[in-house]
Amino acid sequence: MNPYAGTGVAIVTPFLENGDLDVASLEKLVEHMVKGGVDYIVTLGTTGENPTLNKEERQQVYSLVNQFNKGRLKLVAGVGGNDTRAVIKSMNEFDLSGYSAILSVSPYYNKPNNEGLFQHYKAINDNAPLPVIMYNVPGRTGMNVNVATTLRIARECKNIIATKEASGNIEQIMQIIKDKPAGFEVISGDDGITLPIMACGAIGVISVVGNAYPKLISDMVNLCLDGKFIEARANHEKMLPLISSMFAEGNPSGVKAYLSELGITKNTFRLPVVGVSEGLLQTIKSLMKTV
User: Fold this and answer.
1) Domain chopping of the chain, boundaries
2) CATH code for 6-226?
3) Residue 164 designated active-site
4) 111, 110, 151: which is closest to 134 by C-alpha?
């Protein structure tokens, strides 16, 4: 089985009220992941507010997560951007001790066509120091890595071992699963459709809801991996209102509200991200009583 089958969690980056990194809360969050039974942690993915961290802070977060993890879970480093040369340079300059793979989002803002997207990932494939999970999230990047390009990458770029699919297009995802070569897998990038995507052949999820409720999502994913989809539905249905509230006013605003109420991290951000409205916070507090 692919080493990234199961539940990965794209963890938040905790901040103090003055905007500095909150090291103590980061340690508590890593322990929460271990106790929740997840399979791996993704550091500095989208949920980690990585665009607002400088190079030194990113290295600090990579290193602290490795230190706090103590070898218990697999670690994946989020390293992406819209300048291919800069992404490759970062991958090779950061000290990624303890990490076994890289999650790399497709280029954003400059909106390359699908030939440009292929050439970007081909260059990363040829130069990355670790296996790579590509990441398609057109709602954030502005461009969809289409089926043909994903399959071309899968066939020609052997160091790219999976795609985190957050297109929300189930037809696209099913087509990739159907036609992908052996050794390349699909990972859900959307908590809310993880169960149906796994029913079609995805191997797990890189989750946001898992920050707050790691056991809830990991138990569901493990049931899906065992083919017990009817049993998994109970967790799936329990999570749906949580997921809806977490994304109602943006990510990581929602999930940090949950983590703050759980006493794991503070409800603090770096601009331009801000916290949820008071109305949504009250909804979140009510939903938490049902879990």
Assistant:
1) 6-226
2) 3.20.20.70
3) yes
4) 151
* Measured distance CA(118)–CA(50) in Å, rounded: 24
Confidence grade of residue 1 (pLDDT, cut at 50, 70, 90): confident
CA gap 160, 37 in Å, rounded:
26
> What pLDDT, on the 0 to 100 scale, is given for residue 204?
98
Give the gyration radius of the chain's Cα atoms.
18
Q: Look-up: residue for tokens 């190079």? A: 55
User: Any idea how long the chain is?
Assistant: 291
Q: What are phi and psi of 99, to 5 degrees?
A: -95, 145
**Spatial contact of 160 and 130, defined as CB atoms under 8 Å apart:** no
Catalytic residue among 62, 135, 213, 258: 135
Cα–Cα nearest to 282, from 256, 266, 259, 261: 261
pLDDT tens-place string over residues 29-68: 999 999 999 999 999 999 999 999 999 999 999 999 999 9
DSSP letter assigned to residue 17: T
| Residue tagged active-site, from 74, 164, 180, 256 | 164
Predicted confidence at residue 159, as pLDDT, reads 98
Q: What sign has the CA pseudo-torsion 229, 232, 234, 238?
A: negative
Question: Residues 201-224: pLDDT tens digits?
Answer: 999 999 999 999 999 999 999 999
Amino acid at 241: P
Active site residue 285: no
pTM of the model: 0.97
